[in-house]
Automatic annotation (TrEMBL):
Pfam families: HXXEE (PF13787)
InterPro entries in UniProt: HXXEE
Name assigned to this protein: HXXEE domain-containing protein
Superkingdom of the organism of origin: Bacteria
Membrane-spanning segments: 6-29, 56-77, 83-102, 114-134, 140-163
Keywords: Membrane, Transmembrane, Transmembrane helix
Amino acid sequence: MDVHTLIWSFLIIFMLHNFEEIIIIERWFSKKYPEVRERIPPFAIHELEKHKKMTAIQFSIVVYILSIVASALIVVTVITEQYFLFFGLNIIFALNIFTHPLQSLLLKCYVPGLWTTLLLIIPYNIIVHIAFYQHGLLNLAISMKALFVIILFIPVFIVSHMIGEKLAFRLES
């Protein structure tokens, strides 16, 4: 499969996954979270308590900001053929392969994002890694440069949540 087609396909997978989370997040926190709270490890409760009031609007703003950044990285990747940019972005997104299924197993229930992780993200990542390997694009140099993208994405993620919280408060009041 063409590597550029796989790279552009990232945006579709990314949005479908986030749509699942946007649609479910408020209802899950109001209905399911109180039932499963006692199964959550103490270190995670503090973080979840901060996000339990997250609305679909707030999460949509976060996704919007992250989508802009992801789209920019993908455009630059395709134009410059600096594949480490996409690979770093994809590694961050691929963390869903572990987080959603592990959360679901720990809590013994469905968590937002689980279905698209199992049905889209895992197969997509298998295909991406095979294609990158076959095209000689999966190597130590690209992997090391991808770490740089991952590190730079962390503040983007944090700032997107801060903006989402402030902007959602204004939109909802």
